[in-house]
Amino acid sequence: MRSYAVLVAAFAVAANAANYTSSLNMTIVPSSVDDSTRASWCTAQGNTCKSLCSGRTSKNDCDYTTLIYDCACSANNSAPGLEYYTQTMPTFICDTLLAQCYKQYENNQDGQQSCKDDIGTLCASNSPPSSSDSSSSSTSASASTTASQSATQTTQAAASATSDKGGFAAAPAIPKHAAAAVAAGALFALL
Q1: What domain range includes position 70?
Q2: Full-model pTM
Q3: Could you state, in chain order, the average pLDDT of each consecutive group of 10 residues for the chain (191 residues)?
Q4: How many structural domains comprise the chain?
């Protein structure tokens, strides 16, 4: 009977864990986060978008009531790699989902491990590049501090679930470990 209970618990954890492939496809119910936190997320998202696009964006919008955002660089009208950087909506949502998952499985080690494996590994840990515009930098720093404090308060356990992925800023930005794969793919495409 005990093994049946363990099996049912394991199935419940597996069924409840979403099959995320990226922080870009994660969503939360906006009302699960207070208005001021969502507003600071949008400010940080906007500042990071501008920074990743070297100050030249063709789209840079964020609605704190719905958590719908849009970021595109003017240089090539494509989105930078938001999922690779902190201070972006994908990472705020990822960190919040991770915290909610940990809370849901508060006394369940297997459940928390599933949270870490299924969500935590997709949350970014790279800081966005600094902006060369000093007024933007101070605004970004202020929003980043507020957003970081909010994220830290709700996701202290998530910090151990993320790993250092290394990266560089470009439009679109690609982390170091992915840059080699992109370069190799481009080389093979030419052959």
Answers
A1: 2-190
A2: 0.64
A3: 40 55 94 97 98 96 97 94 97 97 96 96 93 47 47 41 35 41 39 38
A4: 1
